[in-house]
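Let us work through a complete example step by step.
Step 1: write down the sequence.
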Amino acid sequence: MNASARIPRVAVVTGGIGGLGTEICRQLAQAGRQVIAVDLPARAERLEAFRHELADLDGAVRFEPADVSQFDRCAELIGRIEAEHGSVDILVNAAGITRDTSLRKMTPQQWHELMRVNLDGVFNMCRNVVEGMSGRGFGRIVNLSSVNGQTGQFGQTNYSAAKAGVHGFGMALARETARKGITVNTVSPGYCDTALVAAVPADIREQIIADIPVGRLGSPGDIARAVRFLASDDAGYITGANLPVNGGYFMSF
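Step 2: predict the structure and record it as tokens.
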């Protein structure tokens, strides 16, 4: 029996107590991983609900507080996790925020706040795990982008730029690390049945659904299953890829 069969691989999921993050944590735990959900520390009610939702997984998912926009906090986080749980073999960067407004109205603060989480956060986390993964000869990094990083979206110049940047970052890192046994891939969700989309006016939401060829919004499970696949040991020949999970809303060659 090899070491990976005896000791569960450790997976870190940023944005781990959000709607998509929670389901990603569940899917990875069901795949036999020891999962560390990372999120901001101040969301006490959501954290309690998160623990209740995953109570059936018998401790396979733990929570660690951290602000991914801060490089030093990410370094401390990885140090804590590796001291308690072992080396980080899987990293899923799912943390993200929105600061929507047209460019004519966007403030520098709205631009920089979003970039610090959505793009700097990916760098901060990857930079703090890639050396260890390289030394061990194994790693799986999955970064969450968005269909709006592929198509652009009105009122989201900051968000679309950051999400496009996530995949560009991933392709470059994939080239740097492929010979080290590390894969780096992107999952680009389309419109999903989340609180954010539920807040959209009903007539606009109906038009969005009408424009999706499969005729429905995505579910968190649709996204999480794609992440689970790319994070698996068997996905070692896929790197630098962008897997769109959008029901056909945007198709490209």
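Step 3: interpret the result. The first strand starts at residue 10 and ends at 14.
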